[in-house]
Design goal:
With about 180 residues, the chain is mainly beta. The protein contains 1 helix and 15 strands, in the order ββββββββαβββββββ.
Length: about 180
């Protein structure tokens, strides 16, 4: 078993949300990013291992709006960004900004069994296809994309003013995590 530690500078988690409803064309699809993530892993062979990652809710930021799959980092005003993050903390996670989301995974032959543990709400387990890529510096890059149900995590429906639109229950989560040797 090789013990590894997550490199937060080279790791990223992106969450894409999508608007639906009668006035969804007036709303925004968003990309959120989580920085300051931490974690560790154990590698047992080329395509086998386990990992634990923590993502502080306060480290989730609005990267921008999405139009036709393209990110516009200037698509929201600072007050709209703050409103989105406030709704995420209260309606999705039911937690204060200092809470964390924990992710536990076991990987075998390109498939991960992922367990997502929100600070308040329900734990969700699901299979996720992953790509493991060893790097020349001894680190391992783990990447993948999956859809996640907000209601499965215990989220309330996230709605706009006067219920003109809502955030679709299914969000897209993409991750690229780099684990290196412990120092």
């Amino acid at each position: 078993m090789t013990k590894l530690v997550l490199d937060p500078e080279r790791s990223r988690v992106r969450i894409r949300t999508f608007a639906e409803g009668l006035f969804s064309r007036l709303a925004h699809d968003l990309e959120l990013v989580c920085r300051r993530i931490s974690g560790s892993a154990e590698r047992a062979g080329a395509e086998q291992g386990s990992a634990e990652v923590e993502m502080p809710i306060a480290a989730i930021e609005v990267a921008g709006t999405l139009k036709n799959g393209q990110l516009d980092p200037n698509g929201l005003s600072p007050s709209d960004r703050d409103d989105c993050l406030r709704k995420m903390r209260s309606d999705v996670f039911h937690a204060a900004a200092d809470a964390v989301v924990r992710v536990e995974a076991t990987v075998e032959a390109g498939k991960a069994r992922v367990r997502i543990v929100p600070p308040q709400g329900r734990t969700v387990e699901r299979p996720v296809p992953v790509r493991l890529e060893p790097a020349g510096d001894g680190s391992t890059r783990v990447a993948g994309t999956f859809d996640m149900s907000l209601s499965a995590l215990g989220s309330d429906p996230v709605k706009g003013p006067m219920n003109a639109f809502r955030v679709k229950d299914s969000v897209e989560v993409s991750f690229e995590l780099v684990f290196g040797a412990q120092r």
